Amino acid sequence: MSNATPRSRRRRWLDNLGTLTLMLLVFFGVQAWQTRAVPKALDPALLDLPLATLRPGQAPETSTLRTELATLQQQHPGQNVALYVWAEWCPICKTTQGTVNTLSVDRPVLTLAMQSGGPETVARHQQAQGLSWHTVVDPRGELSKGLGFGAVPGFAVITPKGALRWPTVGWTSAWGMRWRLWWA
Fold first, then answer.
1. Residue 99: per-residue pLDDT
2. Does pTM top 0.70 for this prediction?
3. What's the burial of 93, exposed, middle or buried (CB within 10 Å: 0-12/13-18/19+)?
4. pLDDT tens, 57-91?
5. 55 and 24 in one domain?
6. Maximum CA pair distance of the chain?
7. Could you give the CA distance from residue 86 to residue 61 in angstroms, rounded to a whole number?
8. What is the pLDDT of residues 141-150, one digit of tens each?
9. In whole angstroms, what is the distance from residue 137 CA to residue 147 CA?
10. Which of 120, 133, 154, 177 could covalently link to 111 via disulfide, CB atoms 3.0 to 4.6 Å apart?
11. Cβ(68)–Cβ(50) under 8 Å?
12. Boundaries of domain holding 6
């Protein structure tokens, strides 16, 4: 039996609640700071930037973000598209690979390989890791920077109207990704 009085238990509970609240404020504050450069809508100039694209089971080809989004939106009418910004050299990205794979089974997902080499290098990496992602290759980070992502992994939702919603940088859980797709 506990020797704690109801008053001391209540005080300990309030202390823990205060600590949890502070941790959440710091976490969301850091997220807001890290994603402060993410625009509210896609820049038309970025939509037409020619970049290499990797589609599952196809050879690399040159395309644009506009074309790739249109392809996904045609395959999944009315649904939001998950945008996952990653890099081959990113250790945290490796921990979220399975989550993105699972998400891409039933949701439209476009990944952006930031500063991970050319299309052949990215294709080899994806094949070695068993990743069958629809990927835009951004070897110099131009598109990533234009989208406001200076760090990886990054995640955002692109609405059917081209708005960017719920951006996050760093590790994101499976339920966090799904919640953002649903809420946007």
1. 94
2. yes
3. buried
4. 898 999 999 999 999 999 999 999 999 999 999 99
5. no
6. 70
7. 20
8. 999 999 999 8
9. 14
10. 133
11. no
12. 1-34
